[in-house]
Write a structure and sequence with these properties.
Elements lengths: L1 H17 L2 H33 L1
Helix pairs in contact: 1-2
Keywords: Cell membrane, Membrane, Transmembrane, Transmembrane helix
InterPro entries: DUF1328
GO cellular component, one term: plasma membrane
């Protein structure tokens, strides 16, 4: 999943340099959504790990 974030980040940066605002904004928003999903899954995983230890 982190690989997808990096791919969309690179696409957004390249598009921003070339001046394609719509493509850059789209790729950046997709990368942001995937990043937040990853953070939620990380928190859930940490909570489950702590619950299983006790």
């Amino acid at each position: 999943m982190l690989r997808w974030i990096l791919i969309f980040l690179v696409i957004a940066l390249i598009a921003a340099v070339l001046g394609f605002g719509g493509i850059a904004a789209g790729a950046a928003s997709i990368a942001q959504i995937i990043f937040y999903i990853f953070l939620v899954l990380l928190v859930i995983s940490l909570i489950m790990h702590l619950v299983r230890k006790t």
